[in-house]
Amino acid sequence: MKKLTGTASGLKGTIQIPGDKSISHRSVMFGSMAKGKTTVENFLPGDDCLSTISCFSKLGVKIEQNGSNVTVYGNGLKGLRESSEILDVGNSGTTARLMMGILSGLPIHSVLIGDESIAKRPMKRVTVPLRDMGARIQGNQDGNFTPISIQGGGLRGLDYVSPVASAQVKSAILLAGLQAEGVTSVSEPFKSRDHTERMLRAFGVEVKEEEGGKVSLVGGQKLVSDLHIVVPGDISSAAFFLVAGAIVPGSRITLERVGLNPTRTGILEVLKNMGASLSYSNVIEDGPEPYADITVESSDLKGVEIGGDIIPRLIDEVPIIALMATQAEGTTVIKDAEELKVKETNRIDTVVNELKKLGADIEATEDGMIIKGKIRLHGCTLDSYGDHRIGMMGAVASLIAEGETVLQNDKAINVSYPSFFEHMESLRRG
Ligand code: S3P
């Protein structure tokens, strides 16, 4: 439990945003599948990524982690050995789904479990296509929920048309496809984040992208590594302070080395459309993932409509966008975002619940929410419900709420941003 109070003087200063969660997971996974040594700088030492390290260590890979520096000594796919232990993914959907793809290709038996939240998250979105490729997967409710058991090997390529825009689904199939006979391809209704494609290419794999966004690769390609991966700051973590800077009067904050992969930058477009003041410096575009420093200043905001193909590019930012909308003049509509229901919590419900407690004018819809502003929020007792992004939304809300806010289950924030409260404190001190 954490007691939080508002700030009258604004947020000031510079922070370095911790490493991107999606890229950190993939650096360990692909480093483990590759032959050779992979060194990773600015790895995110959050609980989710530590679960990935623990799972691959159980599969026999030597991995050294010291804070945000990681070294993976990969021995190729053949170096991944059957584990006598259960693989625990903790709270991490990315670990669960991407590993299901990798394990489906290996001639070994594996069992995956996770925490209470993972036990409610649908796995059929990967179980079904992986079974079509030849993997034998079992789990609760016909393979939809953990515990999941996988007997892998003997896969054939698949041309998969995914009903959801999900990088976890796309990645699981491509990673299985790398170990399958023939070509594997994935099309999605809208383009999801492409970190897998970018990093596989860095490991020497040929990944093709056709017009219309269909991604394909030929099975049997080997990952080779002598790579040094520099993980950019996570734009999904930066989002909390970008919004804090925009809504706390008198603020001016610089966030260093924020990842600017175009499949992730929907939040920046929304901030701009709502009237936020953003400027960019030290833009680096020559590596596999672009990044830059971003400065945000507080400003007057207005409501906007958010829906369609931008949704996958900001899906993890919806909680903090909803809070921002309470401070914008007019109505904000978020639609086409049903995927929120299957995140760490049902984020339509948890966002609406917690913002209502703070006094917001917000209502849930079938595929999103409608928020009316501008409303003066008041302190209250909030719950993260074990969802890191709901916890951080509540903590940022406390900065503008009148009186004291109590945040229950604040430890969930360690999943993606262990230094969150330290950073918030340093910006309050200015
Ligand atoms: C992730 C993809 C997204 C995102 C999650 C991380 C990834 O999920 O919400 O936090 O690393 O591939 P979906 O792919 O299911 O949309």
From TrEMBL:
Pathway: Metabolic intermediate biosynthesis; chorismate biosynthesis; chorismate from D-erythrose 4-phosphate and phosphoenolpyruvate: step 6/7. The keyword Cytoplasm applies. One of its GO terms (molecular function) is 3-phosphoshikimate 1-carboxyvinyltransferase activity. It comes from the Bacteria. The active site is at D316 (proton acceptor). Residues 9-424 form the Enolpyruvate transferase domain. It catalyses: 3-phosphoshikimate + phosphoenolpyruvate = 5-O-(1-carboxyvinyl)-3-phosphoshikimate + phosphate. The keyword Transmembrane helix does not apply. Its EC number is 2.5.1.19. 3-phosphoshikimate binds at K21, S22, R26, S166, Q168, D316, K343. Its main location: cytoplasm. Phosphoenolpyruvate binds at K21, G93, R121, Q168, R347, R389. It is found in: Cytoplasm. GO terms for biological process: amino acid biosynthetic process; aromatic amino acid family biosynthetic process; chorismate biosynthetic process. Belongs to the EPSP synthase family. Catalyzes the transfer of the enolpyruvyl moiety of phosphoenolpyruvate (PEP) to the 5-hydroxyl of shikimate-3-phosphate (S3P) to produce enolpyruvyl shikimate-3-phosphate and inorganic phosphate. This is 3-phosphoshikimate 1-carboxyvinyltransferase.
